[in-house]
Amino acid sequence: MQKKIDFSRYTSIKIGPVKDVYLIEDIEQLRENIFLVGGGNNLLISPNPPSLAMLSKKFDFIKDDGCDLHVGAATIGGKLLSYAKKHDIGGFELLQKLPGTLGGIVKMNAGLKEFCISDNLKSVLTCKGWIEKKDINFSYRSSGIEGVIYEILFERQAGFDYERLEVFKNMRKNQPSNSSAGSCFKNPLNDYAGRLLEQAGFKGKRIGNMAFSDIHANFLINLGGGTYDDAMNLIKEAQKAVLEKFGIKLELEIKVI
């Protein structure tokens, strides 16, 4: 089954073509040249991408057995946060203003500062079966998980922390409201991509209708009608400038397809 999607409206950065996307209804081994798009929140899609796929609503669920939470990978982070609030469950406060589906959030081990979604994760389900956390190479903004994540098992921790929720809200106040794919680059060891970009003169830097935000230099934003080519040119210019000035090669956090 396929679904036609206009990625200039679907993705958070508002760039991309209209494409037929394969809907995944059951756990299966996808062929290597097909890319999973998830919620489209950290993606920059070219005018001619490879074949694309996404999980169907079958994988949008939260099942609570009293000890653990079973969460479908197509479930958006905000839905899980609301469930955690309602049922006084801790460990999911970092999902505040963190867009995307749980599959993508876990795949990139998303979070803020020292807090990561993997903190209270127990295992994930892929086409190879359940994989325990101890067998997953979680690191900063990376999991090393290969293939499609279909379901995630989290430990059920009592006590939603409203103080921590407020901390996460305040930490994200400096993020721009423009269309973007979130943080453009990963923070290098012992430094911040935003600081490096600002020092290299890229805060507010613009090519066409794409720019690095003048609020937070590590956010690549679409000012309206921005194109893939303009975005890529700006990304490459920034990487080159930071490498020349600091000797640091910035690694992309957004996924370019």
Oligomer: single chain
- The chain-level structural class is alpha+beta
- The overall pLDDT, averaged over residues, is 93
Shape: globular
Number of helices: 6
Helicity range: 10-25%
What is the string of helix and strand elements? EHEEEEEEHEHEEEEEEHEHEEEHE
Q: Extract low-pLDDT stretches.
A: none
CATH class of the largest domain: Alpha Beta
Span of the ends, CA to CA: 22 Å
What's the β-strand tally? Answer: 19
Task: Outline the secondary-structure elements.
Layout: E1 2-6, H1 7-10, E2 18-24, E3 34-36, E4 43-44, E5 51-55, E6 62-64, E7 68-72, H2 77-86, E8 89-90, H3 102-107, E9 111-112, E10 115-116, E11 121-126, E12 129-132, E13 151-155, E14 157-158, H4 162-171, E15 179-183, H5 193-199, E16 206-207, E17 210-212, E18 219-222, H6 228-246, E19 255-256
Parallel strand pairs: 2-5, 3-5, 4-19
Antiparallel strand pairs: 1-2, 6-7, 7-13, 8-14, 9-10, 11-12, 11-13, 15-18, 16-17, 17-18
